[in-house]
Amino acid sequence: MGDVRETRPAGASRKAGRPVVRVTRRLHFSAAHRLGRPDWTDTHNLETFGLCANPNWHGHNYEIDVTVEGRVREATGFVLDLKELRDLVEQRVIADLDHRNLNLDVPWLEGVNPTTENLVVAIWDRVADELPDPIRLVRLVLHETPRNSVEYDGRRLEVA
Q: Out of 28, 74, 99, 130, which one is annotated catalytic?
């Protein structure tokens, strides 16, 4: 075999250390849900959640941006092969959510009001600890519609 040369990002020297870079993979799933609290009346749920509390459900074509951070590997020039990231998210998240009812069909959402905010946190919990060291999940952006999205970076505030 021929020589395998070390690759470095343009302008990076051996002495500068390895750069830390963020990479993002976008994935898609479709799912139905109904927002509401079981301890509230249908009227109160409708007043609070609007059309999203429709007793006949409704659906979305979600897009999710999964951003990870790590050092650029000298051998490959990658932080993480994006196919590996895609496969992980498809196995841990998309397989459970795609073409499902979030209220009825997803065990890890049982008892959760499936707002986009609650969904992005639950997805974080499914992915963050499954990444290979030293790669870390730094951001999820879940697009419920082309105009509505939520972003989560893993922070949790202590409740006083």
A: 99
**Catalytic residue flag (residue 52):** yes
| 33, 60, 143, 144: the active-site residue | 144
Model pLDDT for residues 58-107, shown as the tens digit of each residue: 999 999 999 999 999 989 999 999 999 999 999 999 999 999 999 999 99
- Active site includes 144? yes
Q: Would you call 60 a catalytic residue per the annotation? A: no
**Sheet (strand 20-33) strand order:** 100-101, 20-33, 58-71, 136-143, 149-152
Residues, the chain: 160
Residue spans of the domains in the chain: they are 19-152
- Write down the catalytic residue from 52, 58, 63, 143: 52
Long-range Cβ contacts of 92-95 (<8 Å, 24+ apart): 92/126, 92/127, 92/130, 93/27, 93/29, 93/64, 93/123, 93/126, 93/127, 94/27, 94/28, 94/29
Residue type, 136: R
The CATH class of 19-152 is: alpha beta
- For 18-56, write each residue's pLDDT tens digit: 789 999 999 999 999 999 999 999 999 999 999 999 999
